[in-house]
Amino acid sequence: EYEGNRNSEGQRHGFGKARLPNGDTYEGEYECGLRSGHGTYRFRNGALYTGDYLRNKKHGKGVFFYPDGSKYAGDWMHDQRQGYGEYLYANGDTYTGEWANNKRHGQGTYVYKDTGSKYVGCWVNGIQNGPAELIHLNHRFKGRFLNGKPLGRGKFIFDIGCEQHGEYIQPVQVKEIEKEEEDEEEPPLPLEPIWKVSEITKLTAWSPHDEEVLAP
């Protein structure tokens, strides 16, 4: 069903309202038969998008309300979250920063609602990766992350006015002695990196990029 303007060729063009065969509805601008311009699309499952379209795809600025209560407001490109935007998750966590191909990618800040802690730094394909700062209520960690875990040199900075320098080391997985009747092998769980302290100092100026210079 469609109610609205058309061009001389009979295509939807200008402002109109449509009900799709699957029960979704769209109210907004059309250009030569395609959703282009500003509009609001309501999904049958309760989701809603209001923002810019280009040739039937979310493109430009827009807000998407998901059925689980989460929400994204920011840039879109070819139907994907791309550019800069803020995502409010169903559990109350938030991410504000750069996106690519629907994933957190680039510089961004993730705030954990339960603890109040926040991660400020680099992301690659949705995972914490690269130089970053993990800020807690009375101390913070500055260093590098790899696949969501801190790894390599870094430091903890405490509000009482001192720093603990050291590095996160990835433990080596030790294989147990094989039993005579070996069950199906389960993949080993990844071990958590271990923090090794090297020194405690007064507050110093330092950035994760120093690691690159100091690395042998």
UniProtKB/TrEMBL annotation:
One of its GO terms (biological process) is spermatid development. Residues 1-20 are annotated as: Disordered. SMART domains: MORN. Keywords: Cell projection, Cilium, Cytoplasm, Cytoskeleton, Flagellum, Meiosis, Repeat. Residues 1-12 have a biased composition (Basic and acidic residues). It is found in: Cytoplasm, Cytoskeleton, Flagellum axoneme. SUPFAM superfamilies: Histone H3 K4-specific methyltransferase SET7/9 N-terminal domain. Signal peptide: none annotated. GO terms for cellular component: motile cilium; nucleus. InterPro entries: MORN (IPR003409). It comes from the Eukaryota. It holds the Pfam family MORN. Transmembrane segments: none annotated. Functions as part of axonemal radial spoke complexes that play an important part in the motility of sperm and cilia. PANTHER family: RADIAL SPOKE HEAD 1 HOMOLOG. This is Radial spoke head 1 homolog. It comes from Promerops cafer. The gene is Rsph1.
